[in-house]
Amino acid sequence: MAAYDRLPAPARAWVAQAVLPWSATSVARLWTQALRESGCEAEALARLSAAETRTLAREPRVS
């Protein structure tokens, strides 16, 4: 829980609405990389959403 608490507020808000149960470590890694490359929180959030979309696309569909 401490790792979750260390996430920036926008990243915590994103995790709260995420479909998948993301680990704080994964979110922090993606967030940090996106901010380093873009310097933009909106872009970091978009990258988190894109990562989730890609992950969901790989999941087998349940009938």
H/I helix tally = 4
Largest sheet: none
How far the N terminus sits from the C terminus, by CA atoms, comes to 34 Å
Order of helices and strands: HHHH
Describe this structure in words.
The chain is an all-alpha fold and 63 residues long. It is 75% helix and 0% strand. The protein contains four helices and no strands. It has helices at residues 2-6, 9-17, 24-38, 41-58. Helix 3 (24-38) crosses helix 4. The protein starts with a helix and ends in a 5-residue tail after the last helix.
Indicate the topology.
Blueprint: H1 2-6, H2 9-17, H3 24-38, H4 41-58
Summarize the structure.
The chain has four helices and no strands. The chain has 63 residues and is an all-alpha fold.
Features of this protein?
single chain, 63 residues, mainly alpha, globular
